[in-house]
Structure formats: C-alpha cells, structure tokens
Amino acid sequence: MHALLPEQTVYRRRTQVQSGDWQSLSQRRRMGALMMAAVAVAVLSFRRLDYDSLLVLVIEMAACTLLLALASLGSRKVAIDRPLPPIVVLLVAGAISLPWLIDRLARGWGFGNGTEIVMLSSLAWGGVAAAVTGRQSRTIGLSVVCSGFLTLFTTFISDSALATLFTYGWGGLCSWWLVTNHWERVEACAASRVKVALTQRIVTIVGGCAVFALTAALFANRIPVLRQIAMEVMPTSGGTSQHDAAARSGVGNGDAIIAARNHASSFGAVETNLFLDSDQPSLFDVFSDEFGEPMRKQRHEQAQALSPDEIQSDEGSFAEANRSSGNDSFSTQRETPRKKRAPIHDLASEALMYWAGQPGVRLAVERYQLFDGIDWKKAKEDSIGKTPTLVEVDDRSWFQPTGVPVQNSLSPFVGTVPEALKFTRYREPTIPTRPGMQLWSIDQLTRIDFFSIDANHCLRMPGREHVPDYTVVRFINSQIDLERMERLLESCAPGKSHSALSEQCTTRIADWAHRLTGNKPRGWEQVSAIVDGVRESCKLERSQQYSKYASSLEGFLEERAGPAYMFATATALMLEHVGYKARLVTGFYANPRHRFGRDNEVAVLPSDAHVWVEVNVGHGHWVPLEPTPGFDRPRYAASLWYHLVKARKAIALGVMAMLGIVGGVYFLRRWLFEFVCYASWPMVSIFSDRARVAWLTRILDVRLSLAGQPRSRGTIPRQQFCQLSALLPDRLQHSLQSFLTESDRLWFGGESRMSRDGREAVQQLWCQLTIGKLRRRNSPQLIKNESA
Predict the structure, then answer these.
(1) Where are the alpha helices (DSSP H) in 189-334?
(2) What value does the mean pLDDT of the chain take?
(3) Stretch 614-620: mean pLDDT, rounded?
(4) Which of 13, 67, 171, 322 has a CA-to-CA distance to 311 between 20 and 30 Å?
C-alpha cells in the first residue's frame, strides 16, 4: 500500500494532549462555526427585510434563538462520547421546524414567504444548532458547509450590493477557522520523516490521465449524461433542453420574434399583409373530425315566384356576404364521423401545441351560454371585445385583462403559477387559456391592439387568421381555492334558466337534478352532487361508437350514454334548473399521457378536443367542472385543516377501527404469537443450527413474558430456563435439558451442528411448549425458586 503513495509520511505523537486541551480545542472550533452560522442568519434576514414583515422576522429569530440557547445549556455538561439527551434533540428539532409554523401563522395575517425561503430559514437555524450542540468535528464541519452555502446563495439572489459584505465577512471567518484548525493539528502531531518519490508521482499522473482518456473514448458515447453534454455544448434550435432566446425554430427554445415581413409563419410585431394559405385543420375542423359534422337543417319557407323579366342579371362581381366562422354556435346534433382517425404514432408531428404547465388542465377556446334544445349559442354581449392593459414587470411587457380582477377577497383564485403555451400547427386566432389567468406575455411584444378579450374571457388575436407558428405565450395563472369557492357559491344569487327545452326534456332534467341533489344545502354540495352523479351514472361513448339516437339530448337522457358534449350539456341544464348559472366550454384537455420531451411538456393533439362546463360562483368569476368520466377532475387548492374537517367522519371511523384492531391484537396477542411460531417452523429448517437455537431462545423468553413470568433484570436466559425445567412434565423437561446442552456445544464447544436428539428437542420446544402450558404451571413455586 505504501508503495503506491507518491509521498510516504510517518507521524509520531509530539505531545500528550490532555482532555482539557481537547475540550478547549473543540470549543474554539465550535465558536468559529457559530460565528459563521450567525453571518448566514444575518444575510438571510437582510434579504427578507425587502418584502417580509419585521415583526414576523423578529418573532422567528427570538424564538429560535431561545430554543437553541436552551439546547446549548442542556448539551454543555454531556460528555463527548455520550449521546445528547432527548430534551436537547426536541429543542433542536423545534428550532428547525419553527420557521414552517411561523410562516403558516403569518399567512393568516396576510404575510408569509415562499417555500424556498422557509427551507433556507430551516437550513440557517440547522447550521446554528449543529454549531452549538455538535459533539464531533464532522458535525461542526457540517455547520460550516451549511452556513457557507446559505451565505453564497442568498448573496446571489439579493438585489442589494450590501449583501456582498456578508460574503466577505463569512470568507474571512472561514479562512481564520481553517488556518486555526490546521495549526492546532500541527501542534498535536509532527512528522518524523518524509520520503518524496518524484518518479512514482510522474508515473501515477501520466498513467491516470491515459486511463481516463481511454475510458472516455470507449464509453463517452454510450452514457446518456455524457451524450447529453456533448449534444448541448452549443444550445441550438433543435428542441434540446437548453434555452436560447435567439433560436429561430423548434419547440421549447426561442422566444425571440422573427419579423413577419418575409416569413409568414413567424409572429411579427410589424404590420404585414402576408398570411399563410394552409390546408391544416382549424379548431372546428378538429371538433368535426372528433364528434362528427353538425346535421344540416332542412328548412322550407313560403316564397313568391318571380317572372323572368323581374330576375336581375348577375353580371359583375358581388361582394361575398359575411359568413359565420363556424364557431358562433355549437350543435349537439351531429353525424357520426365517416372514418376513424388513425392511431397516433408520433406526438411531435400530430401536436397542435405544447402545454408547459400542470397536466390535466382544460384550455378554453369558446364559451356558450344559451341553449335552444339543439344548439349552444353565445350571448349577445359576448361579441364586445375589451382591450387589455399593458404592465411592465422586471423589464418585460405583460398584458392583463381589464374588468373583473382575478384575485381579490371575492374571488376563488389564489396564488401564482407560471405556465406557457407553444404553438405549432394550431389554426385559430383564439389563444387557449385556463380560468384564473392574471397575466400573459409574448417576448418583445408591447402592442395592446394585438389582443382582445371578449365578455367570457376568451383571449383572441383580432385581425389574424391564426396564431403564428412557433409563438410562445407565457402565462401567470392562479389556482382555485376550494374554501373560497364554497363560500361564494353559498352566497351566490340564484340564476334563471335561459334554455329552451321540450317538455319531455325539461321533465327529465328536473327529475334527475332533484334526485341527485336531494336535501343537500345550496352551494358546493349540490354542484358536486350533480357532477358526480353524471360521471357515475352515464357511460362515455367515443365519436365512432355512439348511435344517432344517443347524439340527441332526449336520447342521452334515456340511454345515459353518449359523447362528451352531451355530458356537459346535461350537467349545465341541471345546474341551471337548481338555480346556478352555467355555460358550455369547448377547447382542449392537456392529457397527462401525452407528456413529451425532457421538460415533460404536454403535447395537445387534435384528439384532445374536449367539452366541459363552467359554473358562475358570483362576482363575475367562473370555475370549471368535469362531468365526463375518463377525464381528470379540475384541481382545487385547499388547506390541510379543510381536508381534516371534511374527512372528520372518516377519520373518526378510522381511529375507532384502528383502536379496535389494536385492542383485538392486544387481547389476542398470545394466540397470534403462537400461530406465527407454529406456521414459521417449516421455514426455519433451511437455516443453520445456531440460528435456530438463537431464535428458540428468544421465543421462549417472549412466551414466558406473555405467560406472566418475565425474566427479571440481571437474570440470564439459561438461569431462567433451568428454574423452569423443574415445573415442566418429564417429556418437555428432557427436551429443555437437551436444548441447553446442545446450545452450550454450539456456542462454547466449537461445534457447528446439533445432534439428532438436539434437533428433535428444538422442534418439540418450538411447537409444544406454548404459552398456555406455561400459564398452567405452578407459578408460586417458580417465584420461590427465583427468590432462592
């Protein structure tokens, strides 16, 4: 071993260090680590002063300092080789977890921090705890590592130049601490001789480099990590995980805008008359492919015939009348698609867009509020567009909707969630969005007239045939708070139904709604009861399966089977019947099964076209509902206390069941233990004789304890077994004596195998010396023998 070392050093003790000197040395190390941990706490507090409450910060620092001071006093008199007392461990754990508790309380006062800041606070106080209670050098070194990482990381994320002073201070303390530790080790030990092997050092370095180069040449292209590094040394626009703002194509890279003057498929922040003439399907071509074409209505009206001389000539060109784009209404009567869509083999080539955000969300494109029994139509005021507002956040232009604010005290939306949508083959001017949109942005775009929002919060790009390819739209969205939504629904004013249905449909909708809601109070219980009832009692049939009869509302209400838009239609009509405003929404479902690439973006395919429902919770806010089985329910945020209150009955039943199980196991513990012992004997034969002897010793010890004759402190098992032998029948007494003899031969006589009589004795004691037989023995005599 020494021949492999480039330097051979032999150390000898220079002085005999006394225990008091070692304690003083450890105290100096702990003091230096504590000073560096204090610097880390100070720089984190300096960063939090920019946005956090001073009162919350003072409370946290005072409470954690008090707990760690008590922990330091409790650990001061403990020897180095002894573990810390449990009270000290509890104080340290309380100081580390206290920032989480204080942050939870601060949120109720309107303050609070992000999760990463709370984690950094716990790390800071953990470093202080390691410095004041550490008994070993590695624990104190861990405190230095934690404080160093925290100081550097906080300095990097800080906006103030004064934060660098803390880094300089920590660096100076760390240098002093390292130098001091080095010279203290030198004082304790000194080298007697040092032998330098220069040739051996050169050979070692050259040989190591050659081995490394050969290994890299052989395996570099076979290891995924190395292949990833080689592929992404220069970030390109080929779809790698690196971000390049100047990329010109590819999904997941460039946000930079390409002028549309010469490139029609790019998004240009300049005026242009150049548009693409594409044969790719638009949004409602997708709906027709998935759900079938709307049935044509055969309408015959009275007309008066004209004589030939009254017919005008059609010479010349006539301006074409404005036609509906096909998305002003949504028909529930559709023909079955003529051909089945081919199976998807390549997500990248089939995708219309990519969703970089939470999977399972619904991206709305069109919303309809009026139903005439066949078609869903928009309200008249829906065509009125609203111009968004431009705001600047960190030198980036963001747009926000005007009108009803997304987050306030009367809103179900809370929090912020950054998400993005990347377009590829999408052919509509409407940008799909999810409820709770606060802000959106396209890189380098600052013109407000590029966007408009209708009364139903549908985001559009007026004056364009479709959203340009490779456009990346970034969003700041909100989550839906379930507690707020319940309170808003309870106080929401009842709405009136504006749908025109036949008498038969009205009767069936009313009966179904009243049967599902029952005597439930108004609010979320009624809404969720209707949605859950539709999901559980109806069967989803894909577009290639449902019959023509089931494609009508009357057929769906009778057969309870049909496509997704029938589920949404029936749910919306039932909600309107019991007094809630509801509307039909068409768009796309971000299917979690279509995750794509290293960033787990969701590829939105034509087959992801979907229809669902939104309900009005009051004050201009709508939340999504999913009545169609097979699709994930919308995710709602709620506190832990809310879930505990809602599940209080289940928790109470679970606690009672657990207590019953624990009580049953306790009262049946003797029979359960004997059953396990008897059932395990066939498997014990495959182990060694020593293992069987050790396990039988433990089993007999437990049986005696369960029989009310536990082994007293200081008594070895052999002594207790010898006392027990006098109380047993002759057959078991002989077996016990044979077992004790064989165990002595195995453990102290150097033998490795038992005799045949010993194995039979082990089997007889294992299976026949039960707890019941031990309890029937004469326990007073055993007590007398033990006292003797």
Answers:
(1) 198-219, 224-231, 283-291
(2) 76
(3) 88
(4) 322
The answer to whether residue 426 scores a pLDDT higher than 80 is yes
Please give the backbone phi and psi of residue 638, each rounded to the nearest 5 degrees, phi first. Answer: -155, 150
Q: Which residue has the higher pLDDT, 265 or 57?
A: 57
Closest CA to 442 of 406, 390, 404, 366: 390
- What is the spatial distance between Cα 517 and Cα 33, in angstroms, rounded to a whole number? 64
Share of the chain above pLDDT 70, in %: 73
Cα–Cα distance, 651 to 20 (Å, whole number): 56
Tell me if residue 156 falls in helix, strand or coil: helix
pLDDT for the residue 255: 52
316 has a pLDDT exceeding 80:
no
What secondary structure, in 3-state letters, does 70-89 show? HHHHHHHCCCCCCCCCHHHH
Bridge partner list, 400: 389
Q: Are strands 472-481 and 437-441 parallel, antiparallel or unpaired?
A: antiparallel
| DSSP one-letter string for 356-401 | ES-TT-EEEEEEE-EE-SSEEE--GGGG--B--EEEEETTEEEEE-
Q: How far apart are CA 197 and CA 5, in angstroms?
A: 8
Q: Two tokens at 277?
A: 């003439």
Which run of H or of E encompasses 601? strand 601-604
Q: Which of 671, 696, 374 is nearest to 552 (CA)?
A: 374
End-to-end CA distance of the chain: 60
Cα–Cα nearest to 174, from 138, 139, 149 = 149
List the Cα angle 771/773/774 in 5-degree steps. Answer: 65
Instruction: Please give the average per-residue pLDDT across 587-615, as a whole number.
Output: 87
Q: Token pair of 475, please?
A: 């969003």
Q: What is residue 645's predicted lDDT score, i.e. its pLDDT?
A: 85
Q: Which residues pair with 11 in a beta bridge?
A: 191
727 by DSSP, 3-state: which? Answer: coil
- Give how far Cα 287 sits from Cα of 16, 181, 611, 625, Å: 87, 73, 10, 20
Beta 472-481 vs 413-423: how paired, if at all? antiparallel
Rounded to whole angstroms, the Cα distance separating 467 from 276 reads 11
Cβ 711 vs Cβ 704: under 8 Å: yes
Helix, strand, coil abundance in the chain, percent, nearest 5: 50, 15, 35
In 10 A of CB 288, how many CB atoms?
19
- The residue written with tokens 């790719």 in the block is 280
Give me 764's structure tokens: 């007889």
Rounded to the nearest 5 degrees, what angle is found at the Cα of 543, between the Cα atoms of 541 and 549?
Answer: 75
**Between 19-48 and 115-133, two packed helices, what is the crossing angle to 10 degrees?**
160
